[in-house]
Amino acid sequence: MATLHYTKSHEYIKAEEGAYFLGISNHAQKELGDITYVELPASGAEFSEGEVCCTVESVKAVAEVYAPLKLAVVQPNERLNDHPELMNQDAEGEGWLIEVTLADIAALGALMDAQAYAAMEK
């Protein structure tokens, strides 16, 4: 079962069977509207906490996606190159942006759980 950890800026890290995936929350994709293009980093790229790691373009706006923790890219979600709408259909599932490794897995504890994130959205 996947566990999601959220940031105030609407990114998430999903922990699933020993792998970690970065994406934007369902709330964020709704705010953006129809997503038309995603710029993803290459495998092996490294980002510090707070650094822009991806860009998401929609019919409404261009949004920068920030690394919530220090991380390295294992692989980008190549399916988004041809099907960016996956982010609208399943942002917290098949619409993830990049698979990552975390420099400090314990740092996930500093992010919000789903209940705290939902409370922030109200």
Spell out the blueprint of helices and strands.
Layout: E1 3-6, E2 11-16, E3 19-24, H1 26-32, E4 35-39, E5 46-47, E6 52-58, E7 62-66, E8 71-76, H2 79-82, H3 86-89, E9 98-102, H4 114-121
Antiparallel strand pairs: 1-2, 2-3, 3-9, 4-6, 5-8, 6-7, 8-9
Instruction: Please list the strands of the largest sheet in the order they lie side by side.
Output: 1-2-3-9-8-5
Rg, Cα atoms, Å = 13 Å
Percent of sequence in beta strands: 35-45%
What is the general shape?
Answer: globular
Structural class: alpha+beta
Q: In angstroms, what separates the terminal alpha carbons? A: 26 Å
Elements, N to C (H/E)? EEEHEEEEEHHEH
Poorly predicted runs: none
- Biggest β-sheet: count, sense, barrel? 6 strands, antiparallel
Superfamily (CATH H level) name: RNA polymerase II/Efflux pump adaptor protein, barrel-sandwich hybrid domain
The second-level CATH architecture is Beta Barrel
